[in-house]
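Standup notes, structure subgroup. Blocker cleared on the BJW input:
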Amino acid sequence: MKIVVLTGAGISAESGIETFRAETGLWANHRVEDVATPEGFAKDPDLVHAFYNGRRGQLADVQPNAAHKALALLEKHVDLLVVTQNVDDLHERAGQRNLIHMHGELRGALCHGCGHRWAAPDTMNTTDACPACAAAKTRPDIVWFGEMPYQMDRIFDAITAADLFVSIGTSGNVYPAAGFAAEAQRAGVDTLELNLEPSNTPTDFADARYGPATEIVPDWVATFT
Ligand code: BJW
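Run returned:
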């Protein structure tokens, strides 16, 4: 059985990481244009580094929850690819191996001069030099609005070749990820939504279960183990 799982901020919410669009979410105190666009970074790189340095620092205080662990267990029983929109490292810390970070990683650094990527230090600054080209053009390795997410060809190939596509803890606001379920349905792939509440695209799913990820994800995984 081939399964592709897409995860969003909701799977990490019960680990203590804020989602984006909740009233008290990550963007409640920031304009999206200021911290999640290349234009925002060009205008005020210190503000953007401070935003991501803070979130990177928070990773030491959070742990994978029962939903992350259930997906790592599922990998031992089916042919599974997890595509996460999350920039935290909780899937890999739960033991997930076949994993794509389509929106980048807090623990990654990227040179916007030469494109080199490397492990980010705990605190990034505008003066940091790229280890490959030495230019002080380093930025967090995060996919911002208007930029191409990572590994799109591999993701679309895996979705259209899957038996089942499952979306967990994402609001369905951000494309291309929000279009994956429709793409799966067009290819004749079965679809399931697991979320706290219906997403923006509930009609793209053949089936849905609603509740906290730490309850509904382990329950669903238990049907395969
Ligand atoms: C629980 C729970 C619990 C809570 N249990 N569930 C105009 C200009 C430029 C671009 C565009 C434009 N118009 C449209 C676009 C495209 C744009 C886009 O989609 N915009 C929309 C806003 C309209 N997209 C892009 O620009 C993307 N690139 C692109 O399109 O390239 C061209 C392309 C074309 C064709 C093919 C391929 C590519 C890039 C998007 C990059 C998004 N990056 C961000 C920010 C990263 C920086 C950061 O981390 O700060 O990634 S946006 C932000 O949203 C973040 C997330 O990964 C993403 C998704 O959010 P998510 O995960 O859904 O979180 P929430 O908060 O929205 O939802 C949480 C959910 O969990 C809710 O449903 C809750 O109910 C649930 N929940 N607790 C279970 N306990």
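Discussed briefly. The chain has a mean pLDDT of 96.
Next: hand off to the docking folks.
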